[in-house]
Amino acid sequence: MLEGARPPSHNKFCSSPREPEMYKHPEVYDMGDMITRYFRKNHRRVNKFSCANFTWWPPWVYKMYDVDTLTKHVKEELKSWNQMLTEDKMPQDPVSFSFWVLGNLPIDDGMRLHILRLDSAIQRLRCELSIMQRCTILCCKNCGQQIAHKNDVFCMALEGPMAAYVNPGGYVHETLTVYKINGLNHIGRPETANSWFPGYAWTIVQCRHCASHMGWRFTAVKKKLSPEKFWGLCRSSLLPGLQNQDESGDAWRPIL
Question: Has this prediction a pTM greater than 0.70?
């Protein structure tokens, strides 16, 4: 009935429908003779994107801006960063979830403010998803030296892989915890005083290339603590591997 509402050019964006399958249905006549009738099975799947077939746009376009689909993809990407991160630690509301993800991404203040200005959870989730899909390494913000890989990120706090800690001087450090690092030097001896993680001693770490302060190494001083050592990297000293430029030479920006 509504087939004419869809332009012929729309078909090139749609997959070809499945051919209906045949199945047999035996019946018995009054005289006892057996006959077999053939019927067709219809495999049409109906979901909330089915109505897109009667619009100018195919279903995959609507899925790009569907909040449930975006939330699912972001959670899958987060789990690829950290297998230990479970959904019970994540907010269920899409708006709260978009802000929670933003708070755990190791991005600079400029990009964080850019995303915070967006007055839509869908746009924030699309930006965050594009960042996570593009980011594979974490670099020194000052010199660009590779420091860690995204697969080395893990949660040491209930809030997620990144949390805010305050030192005795009152300075707040947003710290990302990782299992492994590259290109860092350890400065001084391990200290247990004022440690943010009970049972661990901290040591200052600097970038081996430019000597910028990157964070701390934490080593266990008590038995049966896991992990035995890890690193806490300051978000203000990190830059995700997003420095790639497009063909025009402009700096990359997350997708809205």
Answer: no
